[in-house]
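Predict the 3D structure for this chain.
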Amino acid sequence: MPDDRNDDEQYGPADDHLAERLAEVDDTLAEQRAAALRASLDDYELDPEDAELLAGITAGDDIVEYLPALPVVAIVGRPNVGKSALVNRILGRREAVVEDTPGVTRDRVTYKAEWNDRRFSLVDTGGWEPDARGIDKSVAAQAEVAIELCDVVLFVVDAMVGATSTDEHVVKLLRRSGKPVFLVANKIDDTRQEPEAAALWNLGLGEPHPVSAIHGRGVADLLDAVMAKLPKVSAVASHEVGGPRRVAILGRPNVGKSSLLNKAAGEERVVVNDLAGTTRDPVDEVVEVGGKLWRFVDTAGIRRRVHLQQGADFYASLRTSAALEKAEVAVVVLDVSQPISEQDVRIIDLVLESGRALVLAYNKWDRLFDDDMEDIDRRRYLEREIEQDLAHVAWAPRVNISARTGRHLDKLVPALETALHSWDQRIPTGKFNAFLSELVAEHPHPVRGGKQPRILFGTQAGTRPPTFVLFTTGFLDPGYRRFVTRRLRELYGFEGSPIVINMRVRERRQR
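Done. Predicted structure below.
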């Protein structure tokens, strides 16, 4: 992306007196001038979309709303018995990552589900194994937490394999919890295989429910039985929060995204491991940071070439993109102990393309002052890299943090609030047209092909992100549009939010 400073050289330096002159413009006078400019558009060819845009737009308020706590259903079992496939079948869509390889799901991931007009939270977990080590131990721990924080448990067993010693360990764990348990005999694809499910009576959990998560057979009967046991309001979950701002945590693999969520939540909410690509499903959690509630969404690391990925990593990348679309602000985590890479820049550009607010979190900052750090010149080169590679997002708030120790985590909230305020910011039409008039008077658009494009009228068409529409008599150079954007930032801030400037070239009506 071109550096805005080149546009300054072409169209003129920053005008320090522009803000003073605009401050002197009376609001009433500005509105009258804007109304006159708006009336002059009647001499030009306008389409129905133009009329709709000029009619005005209202913005809604964001209010934190507390709803009754939804009952929670947790799905547990040993690896590769079809837990995530059952989740997808209940949801009615391919939401959880499914692959034949055991151990694809690692975190406990919560989804909103509905059956017969009853809404509930559905928790998918990683495979539980006894005496697990390394990352498998962390995965098993998350499954145990899910059992404690649910109202009903669906214990999934591969009926074609039968009960194993691992299944018997899970049964002991479930009995200690005292939660209602439904024994799900999965992979029963037709009636001829139903006798296989009868052998699971030996587990002592009551009647097995034969289902086929892949084909959907028996799942409806299972859900009917679950709804009969499920309370209307959860006895363990906290109240549902309808309004916290959604924050997506993005970055390449192994930069500390999951550690950041765990530190913000104050618990081991997601699995953290030195193995790159530990997170695969987006994990969201309502956390209280800085006295406010936020919905943080930890995402899978975005790798260099998404189209060359296969299996779980490919679908994890797709779900990361979907999580970004649902978010309001993105925190892009950068590892300061490593050079800023092309991959980091591509992730930031992905946020810009999505139109989300942006905060840059420089993680592992404490390592720059570690005497044991191999590259002692890293501190010297970091600022140079930021200036060269991230010049096009110099407007994004920057926070230097350590997700491992929690250093400067409190500074993340002011940065998020600033970015979201800019994302919601609206400039009155009168003020915006006064800004355009002063700017064009000082730095008119260059003549192109013997003609000089004029800006007839401008309005802010929307927020989230701030989107401006300019009615012009000709095409404005990209450099000139960047010049207008830069002056908008200098005058009105918009720190942490991308700005979109669109054009509508209109010709004068034939008399």
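The chain is about 35% helix and 20% strand.
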